[in-house]
Amino acid sequence: MPRYPEIEPYENGMLDVGDGNHVHWETCGNPDGKPAVVLHGGPGSGSTPSCRRLFDPAAYRIVLLDQRGSGRSTPHASRPDTDMRVNTTGQLTTDLEELRRHPGIDRWLVRGVSFGSVFALRYAQTHPGVVSELVLTGVATGSDAELTRGLGRIFPEAFERFRSGVPDGERDGNLSAACNRLLESPDPEVRERAARARTDWETAVIPAPPRSVARYEDPVFRMGFARTVTHYRGNGHFLGEGEGESDGAGASGDGVLLRDAHLLKGVPGTLAQGELDFGNLLGSVWRLHHARPDSELVPVGDTGHNAGATGVAEAMVAATGRYARGPAPVRPTRRH
């Protein structure tokens, strides 16, 4: 199924979520339609208008938001005085609940991509009663193998370039945390070199269309993205226990989302995953699917970690189309 035509929001605003943060949100589609919320990736990427096109605008009330510190939310993570201590998965979840209650939504479909899938899974595990369905792509589970040192085994040259940018004494430890410390430096040149190194690593390991790569040339986006993604990955995505990558730095949040997959019982969902996505190659998505009897897995051929790929988008549109008609029966794994 092709994507729906472009649409514009009929309502938007800035929600005061505390800690000096204001989260930008917008709503489009049918004001009386089935509620759905879109969780972007990164963390720190911000929402994109293309996500509106994955839902039938006559059937859905589509809510998009920019998570703390990203997009049009304030203060932006690119500002050196923005306090990242109040930017965690738990606080994002609290923000999402405030946004749900703001217009009086009882339950909504949650769509997440990449880090947005980590966020969506944790949100649904901790608030299952308000999630009607989960529609995820570019699925990640916060596993150590999906993080910097794990991917270094697949991309050794790019990994060594990134690793060489952190101080000698930290190269065998938590690289995301080490890079984040450079991004918190009072020296703007140190911050800029670290941001460039982090986004160069991103483009090396996650092939993306030119439009997506070009955003890293925007110094504001580059700094905000690099600072946010290293803050989260350096702390195990703040999944509640054992924060931090376990690449020589101790315990992490590894396995928490898979461990708690049973909490999603009764929440139907679709996992549309590129067969060449590193998360698929590592088996994370397969394990998540088999830990969730209420999910369907849709492998998309010849596609990597690219939510905008035609096959992935078509699988998303097909899933939201079925869920618009109410609860759908669980289907066996199928290829797209």
Amino-to-carboxy terminus distance: 11 Å
The appropriate CATH architecture of the largest domain is 3-Layer(aba) Sandwich
Mean pLDDT over the full residue set: 89
Q: Label the structural class.
A: alpha/beta
Approximate shape = globular
Succession of helices and strands: EEEEHEHEHHHHHHHEHHEH
Strand order, largest beta sheet: 1-2-4-3-5-6-7-8
**Strand residues, percent:** 15-25%
Oligomer: single chain
Q: Summarize the amount of helix as a percent range.
A: 25-40%
Characterization of this structure:
The chain is an alpha/beta fold. The chain folds into 2 domains: 11-143 and 255-324, Rossmann fold, CATH 3.40.50.1820; 145-238, no CATH class. The chain is 35% helix and 16% strand. It contains 12 helices and 8 strands. The protein has helices spanning 89-101, 115-126, 148-152, 156-163, 175-183, 188-205, 210-214, 219-233, 256-259, 278-281, 284-291, 310-324; strands at residues 11-18, 21-29, 34-39, 60-65, 108-113, 131-137, 269-274, 295-300. Strands 1-2-4-3-5-6-7-8 form an 8-stranded mixed sheet, with helices on both faces. α5 (175-183) packs across α8 and α6 crosses α8. The longest helix has 18 residues, at 188-205. The chain is globular and about 55 Å long. Mean pLDDT is 89; it is low at 242-251 and 328-333. GO terms for molecular function: aminopeptidase activity. This is Proline iminopeptidase. Keywords: Aminopeptidase, Cytoplasm, Hydrolase, Protease. It catalyses: Release of N-terminal proline from a peptide. InterPro entries: AB_hydrolase_1, AB_hydrolase_fold, Peptidase_S33, Pro_iminopeptidase.
